[in-house]
C-alpha cells in the first residue's frame, strides 16, 4: 500500500492536485492521503476533506523526517518553493530513509517553474525538445538561476538516495483552482488586480508569446504520473523525467487587450485603451511585485516542445480559443475571491532581500 504526501496542499496548485486525486483516483483511499500545510487556519480548511492534514515545517529536517516515517510516506508531490532546494532535499532524504525501513520504492514529484526555461534567465534561445538533454543543459546553467539549481539538486540527490524523481514544470496557469484554501493563480490575477486598482491597462512593448495551461489540465498531468506510479508502470524519470505542463500558447499583448475589453463591458474601465509601461520600475509599482522579477514572470516566454507528457497520455482539454472564450472568468474570480492567498509574491520579495 502506498501513502502519498502533498506539500503546499493549501496552495493553488497543491490544493487542486489534492482535489484531483480525491475525485479521480481509484487506487488511493482517503486514509492513504496526507496534506502538508503551514497554519492552523489551513488545517481547519482542509480537515473536512477526510484526509490527514499535517501542520508541517518543511524547513525543519527533523520534523520532515519524523512525519514521513510516522505516516509511512513513500510518494511525495512537492508544490512548495522551487527557489530554495532545501525543503525538497529534506523530503527526499526522509523518503530514502523510510524506503529502507519499509522496503517500498519511493517517489518524489517536484514542481519546478517555466521561468527556468526563459531566454532572459539564461536558457538557450530557440526550440528545445524535452527529450534533448534538458537536465544536462540545466546543470550547465544551474548557477545562473535558482530554479535551475533546485531542479538539478533534486534530480541528483534523489538518484543518490535511491528515490525515483519526476520534475513537473507548469507554464502560465489560469482558471479557478479546486482546492479548499487558495483558488487563485498569480500572474493573471495580479494583472486583473492592477487593472482594477489603477483603472487602466498597461502592457509591455511587443507581444510576448507564453505557454499556458488551465489548472484542471495541469492537475490531470500530476494525477496521471501518480497513477502510473501506483500501477508500477515505468515512465520517464530522473534526468529524463521532465513533464512540461504546456497545453497551448498565448500572446500577452492579446490577453491584455481582451481583458481591457471585458473590463470596459463590466464598467470597470472607462474605455479599453491600453497603455505601455514606461519602464520596469513603473511596471513593478503597478503590479506590486519586485522589479527584478517583472520581466521574468510577466513578460517572458519559452520555446520548449513537450513530448514526454504524451507518454502518460496527457491530453489537455483547454486551448487558446477556449481560454479567450472564458477570459471574463479571470475577472470574476478576482472579484469573487479577492487577492490570491499565495506566498509566491512574498517569497519573491524575500529573495530580493537575499
UniProtKB/TrEMBL annotation:
This protein's GO CC annotations: cytoplasm
A GO MF term: aldehyde dehydrogenase (NAD+) activity
Domain of life: Eukaryota
Family matches, as InterPro entries: Epimerase_deHydtase (IPR001509), NAD(P)-bd_dom_sf (IPR036291), NAD(P)-dependent_oxidoreduct (IPR051783)
SUPFAM superfamilies (alphabetical): NAD(P)-binding Rossmann-fold domains
NAD-dependent epimerase/dehydratase domain mapped to chain residues: 4-228
Protein name from the UniProt record: NAD-dependent epimerase/dehydratase domain-containing protein
Species per Swiss-Prot/TrEMBL record: Penicillium atrosanguineum
Amino acid at each position: 500500500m502506498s501513502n502519498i504526501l502533498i506539500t503546499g496542499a493549501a496552495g493553488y496548485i497543491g490544493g487542486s492536485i489534492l482535489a484531483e486525486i480525491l475525485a479521480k483516483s481509484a487506487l488511493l483511499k482517503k486514509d492513504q492521503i496526507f496534506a502538508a500545510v503551514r497554519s492552523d487556519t489551513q488545517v481547519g480548511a482542509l480537515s473536512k476533506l477526510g484526509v490527514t492534514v499535517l501542520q508541517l515545517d518543511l524547513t525543519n529536517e527533523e520534523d520532515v523526517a519524523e512525519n514521513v516515517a510516522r505516516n509511512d510516506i513513500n510518494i511525495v508531490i512537492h508544490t512548495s518553493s522551487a527557489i530554495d532546494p532545501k525543503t525538497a532535499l529534506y523530503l527526499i532524504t526522509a523518503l530514502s530513509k523510510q524506503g529502507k525501513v519499509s522496503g517500498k520504492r519511493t517517489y518524489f514529484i517536484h514542481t519546478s517553474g517555466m521561468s527556468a526555461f526563459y531566454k532572459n534567465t539564461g536558457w538557450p534561445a530557440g526550440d528545445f525538445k524535452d527529450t534533448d538533454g534538458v537536465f544536462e543543459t540545466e546543470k550547465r546553467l544551474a548557477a545562473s538561476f535558482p530554479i535551475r539549481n533546485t531542479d538539478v539538486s533534486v534530480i541528483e540527490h534523489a538518484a543518490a538516495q535511491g528515490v525515483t524523481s519526476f520534475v513537473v514544470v507548469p507554464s502560465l496557469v489560469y482558471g479557478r483552482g479546486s482546492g479548499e484554501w487558495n483558488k487563485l493563480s498569480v500572474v493573471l490575477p495580479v494583472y486583473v488586480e492592477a487593472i482594477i486598482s489603477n483603472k487602466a491597462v498597461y502592457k509591455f512593448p511587443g507581444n510576448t508569446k507564453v505557454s499556458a495551461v488551465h489548472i484542471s489540465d495541469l492537475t490531470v498531468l500530476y494525477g496521471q504520473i501518480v497513477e502510473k506510479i501506483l500501477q508500477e508502470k515505468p515512465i520517464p524519470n530522473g534526468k529524463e523525467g521532465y513533464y512540461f505542463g504546456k497545453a497551448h500558447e498565448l500572446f500577452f499583448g492579446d490577453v491584455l487587450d481582451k481583458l481591457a475589453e471585458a473590463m470596459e463591458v463590466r464598467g470597470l474601465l472607462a474605455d479599453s485603451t491600453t497603455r505601455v509601461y514606461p519602464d520596469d520600475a513603473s511596471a513593478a509599482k503597478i503590479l506590486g511585485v519586485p522589479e527584478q522579477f517583472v520581466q521574468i514572470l510577466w513578460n517572458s516566454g519559452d520555446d520548449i516542445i513537450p513530448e514526454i507528457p504524451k507518454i502518460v497520455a496527457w491530453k489537455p482539454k483547454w486551448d487558446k480559443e477556449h481560454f479567450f472564450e472564458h477570459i471574463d472568468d479571470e475577472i470574476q474570480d478576482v472579484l469573487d475571491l479577492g487577492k490570491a492567498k499565495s506566498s509566491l509574491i512574498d517569497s519573491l520579495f524575500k529573495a530580493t532581500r537575499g
